[in-house]
């Protein structure tokens, strides 16, 4: 009698293979004028890693995307209090809650530290080549 194998006779093997660098895709949020953003883009380009660049001068990051970074680094970890835009908006003395800051950052993406880098579920603020190499290993 032939048919599908029963649960007791079926064998399944799960094999986890390391992901090749060419299979990775990195998302980088920043501006073309920012030297650190260009450095991050160059790092991944030299290693032939696909990058999806979001130019914050043209398009803001989604609130959901920002929340990922806030969960790991906190608002202060992604907010660039030294930026010219921060001073222009008169936010030096502003004391807002997390939700209000997220709303402001969605409207004013140039208040973010640059670059914000995401590779799958791994996140980084700024350029950390040692960490990037770990992601590719």
Structure characterization notes:
With 137 residues, the protein is of the alpha+beta class. 37% of the residues lie in helices and 15% in strands. It contains five helices and four strands. It has helices at 35-46, 63-78, 84-88, 98-107, 129-136, and strands spanning 25-30, 50-55, 116-119, 122-125. It has a four-stranded mixed sheet, sandwiched between helices. α2 packs across α4 (98-107). It is globular, with a radius of gyration of 20 Å. The mean pLDDT is 87.
Indicate the low-confidence ranges by residue numbers.
none
Query: Which range does the strand content fall in?
Result: 5-15%
Number of strands: 4
Task: Report the end-to-end length measured between terminal Cα atoms.
Answer: 49 Å
Class from secondary-structure proportions: alpha+beta
For the largest beta-sheet, the strand count, sense and barrel status come to: 4 strands, mixed
Mean pLDDT over the full residue set: 87
What's the tally of helices?
5
Q: What is the H-and-E element order?
A: EHEHHHEEH
Q: Numbering strands along the chain, what is their spatial order in the largest sheet? A: 2-1-3-4
Helix share bin = 25-40%
Mind telling me the C-alpha Rg? Answer: 20 Å
What shape does the CA trace take? globular
């Amino acid at each position: 009698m032939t048919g599908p194998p029963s649960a007791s006779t079926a064998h399944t093997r799960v094999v986890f293979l390391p992901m090749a660098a060419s299979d990775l895709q990195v998302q980088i949020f920043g501006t073309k004028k920012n030297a650190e953003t260009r450095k991050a883009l160059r790092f991944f380009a030299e290693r032939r890693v696909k990058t999806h660049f979001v130019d914050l001068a043209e398009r803001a990051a989604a609130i959901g995307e920002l929340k990922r970074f806030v969960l790991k680094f906190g608002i202060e970890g992604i907010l660039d209090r030294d930026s010219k835009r921060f001073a222009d908006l008169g936010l030096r003395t502003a004391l807002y809650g997390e939700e209000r800051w997220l709303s402001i950052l969605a409207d004013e993406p140039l208040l973010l530290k640059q670059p914000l880098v995401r590779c799958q579920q791994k996140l980084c603020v700024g350029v950390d080549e040692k960490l990037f190499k770990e992601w590719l290993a």
